[in-house]
């Protein structure tokens, strides 16, 4: 049911932990399943993400997607990190079962929340970044209503 890459990132998640004095920290959850993810970013003066760590209290797909997301944003600029969408994370993992797609949204939102925190702390505006939500299940409902 899961790709080899998903299993690999679930069994050996990369970049688990915290960053002390992180440039930005974002925490998001999904009230429907109760899963929570926290993402830490270390961003240098040139706006390059030097390090990224995460902690996930959640399902296997949430662990695998956050692990892959941290790998994808490392070394990127803030703007490039915005392109690390849940679709990009899923592609990098060779896909997720449809019922687990929502778990990858947690990773995308956690990155956005950490970037938002960074922008607020530095008094800057990141073009294209919307204010993140604490509970992504609210967002899912909005999306569902659009159909
Ligand atoms: Fe909640 Fe996967 S079931 S994030």
Structural class assignment = alpha+beta
Number of strands: 3
Query: Helix and strand string, N-terminal first?
Result: HEEEHHHHH
- Beta content comes to 15-25%
Bound ligands = FE2/S2 (inorganic) cluster
User: Which runs of at least 5 residues are low in confidence (pLDDT < 50)?
Assistant: none
What can be said about the biggest beta sheet?
A: 3 strands, antiparallel
Rg (CA only): 14 Å
Tell me briefly what this model is:
By secondary structure, the protein is an alpha+beta fold.
Q: Mind explaining what this structure looks like?
A:
With 147 residues, this protein is α+β, with helices and mostly antiparallel strands. The protein has a single domain (4-146), classed as Sufe protein. Chain: A. Helices cover 44% and strands 17% of the residues. The chain contains six helices and three strands; from the N terminus they run αβββααααα. The protein has helices at 4-11, 60-73, 78-81, 86-92, 101-121, 136-146, and strands spanning 24-30, 35-43, 49-57. A hairpin with a 5-residue loop joins strand 2 and strand 3. Helix 1 packs across helix 2, helix 2 (60-73) crosses helix 4 and helix 2 (60-73) crosses helix 5 (101-121). The protein is globular and about 45 Å long. 39% of the residues are buried. The model has no long low-confidence stretch (mean pLDDT 94). Residues 30, 33, 35, 58-59, 61-62, 103, 106 line the site of FE2/S2 (inorganic) cluster.
């Amino acid at each position: 049911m899961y790709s080899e890459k998903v299993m690999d990132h679930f069994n050996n998640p990369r970049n688990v932990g915290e960053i002390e004095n992180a440039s930005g920290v974002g925490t998001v959850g999904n009230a429907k399943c109760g899963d929570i993810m926290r993402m830490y970013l270390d961003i240098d003066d040139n706006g390059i993400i030097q390090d990224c760590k995460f902690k996930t209290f959640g399902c296997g797909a949430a662990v695998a997607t956050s692990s892959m997301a941290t790998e994808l944003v490392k070394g990127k600029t803030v703007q490039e990190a915005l392109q690390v969408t849940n679709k990009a994370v899923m592609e990098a993992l060779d896909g997720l079962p449809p019922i687990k797609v929502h778990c990858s949204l947690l990773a995308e939102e956690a990155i956005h929340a950490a970037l938002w925190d960074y922008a607020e702390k530095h008094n800057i505006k990141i073009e294209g970044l919307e204010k993140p939500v604490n509970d992504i299940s609210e967002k899912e409902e909005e999306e569902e209503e659009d159909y």
